[in-house]
Protein 1
Amino acid sequence: MKACVFYGPGDVRVESVTEPQPGPGELLLRMEATGLCQSDIRVYKGEKKAKIGVIPGHENVGVIAELGEGVEGLAKGQRVALCPIIACGRCFYCLRGLRNRCLKRTTLGYDENGGLAELLLVPASIVSLGHVFPVPEGLPSDVATLTEPLACVLNSLEACRLPPGGSLLLLGAGPMGLLHLMLARALGAATVIVSEVNQGRLQQAKLFGASLTLDPARDDIQSAVLEASDGLGVDAVVVTTGVPALVEPALAAVRRQGTVNLFGGFPPNSTVALDPNVVHYSEINITGSQNATPDQYRRALQLLTVIPQAAQVNTHRFPIEEGTKAYESRLGMDGLKSLVIF
Ligand SMILES: [Zn+2]
Ligand SMILES: [Zn+2]
């Protein structure tokens, strides 16, 4: 079968590899669509680790082609999306339902083979943990690949404790920023302000329902946000992109007792200067979010059915033979997400 193989930073090759066979407890998926995200690009750039020789791809949707011995509750022909997290199920965090924080966590596409291949062998641990979710009928497979990114966004918004009718500032309107915008709106955010340097993306934020769009090269973010929020600041700010310099304007735009969530991964060894008195006197909650719990995956897949406009973040499609182009297209700022479609 054809697959993308990761040989090291800047080196992903399309190759013919041996077709996997499902052993006891495993599943074999015939892939329908696999999304690439910023974290795949960070691996490609050498900013994030992955195993040499692994097949990348953690935003996976496929049809069950074969069931290994002993798999129950799933059937051949079923279309499924995956939570790519392999968790131990018994550590401190797993017992709290936080499998994304598992002390022994590994992930499909980084440590184990992922879905940039015609067939994906789903490990028995993923099957037994219940990380295989049937895709609702009528939800296209390319849209269902957004389950993973949307689950991460749901985790982010829940970390923000954004109330219905609340206000949100998004710093960055890449695919994840735009998914934050759509989901926050669907969950009842009354005001969503978006700041972004890329004019095309800013325009898209407008189309997807941003209350106010700001260009940090032209606008004073703090004064624009204060003006739009009766001088209070917003309930929450999400730094959707890993730019350390955005932490300071985030703290300047959040209201007292508001939340700043650091969503995007930052380059290794980043530091930021902050005035601890701003956090202290305004009782600001600074938090982070990374990946999502299985329950957030389950709900994200259902939420995709109520935000059909999410489909528009998938802008570039490639066959597996051109898998490397899916990476290259993401190195530029043209378009939003890239997919491999089978
Ligand atoms: Zn992803
Ligand atoms: Zn664990």
Note: The pocket of zinc ion (ligand 1) is lined by residues 37, 39, 58-59, 148-149 (CB under 6 Å).
Protein 2
Amino acid sequence: MPHPPTDPPPARPVDPGAPQRLETTAITAGRRANQGSLSTPLWATTAYEQASLDEAGDKATTPRVKDFYSRYGNPTVAAFEDAVAELEGAGGAQAFASGMGAITSTILALCSSGDHLVAANQLYTSTGGLLAGACPRFGIDVSFVDQTDVDAVAAAVIPGRTRVIFVETPANPVLQLADLEALSAIPGPLKVVDSTFAGPLLQRPLELGFDLVIHSATKSLAGHNDATLGVVAGPEDLLQWIWGFHTIVGAVASPFDALNALRGIRTLGVRVHHACGSAQRLAELLEDHPSVLRVNHPGLESHPQRELAKRQMAHGGSNLSFEVEGGVEAGRRFVEALRLCRLAPSLGGPETLVTHPASTTAAGMPPDERDAIGISPGLIRMSVGLEHPEDVSADVFQALAATRT
Ligand SMILES: Cc1ncc(COP(=O)(O)O)c(C=O)c1O
């Protein structure tokens, strides 16, 4: 019986000229410390025994150390971080306990009292809560602007005071886009994007000039609805700063969830391609349905920013939203009539999931504010999963029929 190897095997020579696509990087990335094991070992430990006080002293003062104390870093979490960094083409990545852990730690690490931040007026609800609620309490002023209007974003920047421009593209739930290349040319602030709805295969924010890219890895990166995780990728100097803040806040990624996410990343290519194809087809079919007033999907010719989508995204993505004729009641009847698609507040997993924002995440918003950002009473958000596309569309169409009865 051979013993498991104790040293990493010599690196396999890689032909530097060989093309490697991102689907392949999803398979090869984050294996540095695997010691020959095909899957990443789970390091379920809180701390590492130190050989000497000198070594303990060194590690206690080393940013992003992986083998000292698991709130500072953990080898299984580090493998997930390496994989995301490779996928994003980033200097590094830092994992967090959730997407909100990543967003909150990044914003609060980068901004101090007296600083100013320019943010999109269409953001995931909890991100909006952080920026509209918590930031002002800490003396960080936030201007909310229409992220589709690059001139408006540039005009909102206060030279010398604006630390960060924060956008989300495609934005939850009406799939509005931000032009990353144009925004990155605005001088001064750091540019940070929540790219959760696209993921690294569809959109390349760092290559377009953004400083940091954030994902709720809870979604398509982990991809199986079994891990709550966030990640930010970018240059090492910014990550060290953010890491320092995250160790204080304690928004620390669990090694179990990092392991699940790594397993999810291995199949990212096939999952994303299947789900995107199904979503595109469903969006096109829905556009022709008499009970549907509007469909939001960046892959549709009718999307108001279709030209930008073609330039910036490899595909329209696996999320769409659409407005059912008949307002709140029709939206509710649609959701209640579904037999295959499930009502659940997440996205990017194997199951097709729906939400009705007017009854749930946006229920507390005044109707005029909701309307202003496109959350109409009959709006349904849908994350298309990995079922057979025809089974998903059959379920959606039978549920649409129920809205008319
Ligand atoms: C676009 C976007 N960003 C961030 C988050 C927050 O992620 P998490 O739930 O992992 O904190 C979500 C959650 O739905 C989201 O949709």
Note: The two ends are 68 Å apart (CA to CA).
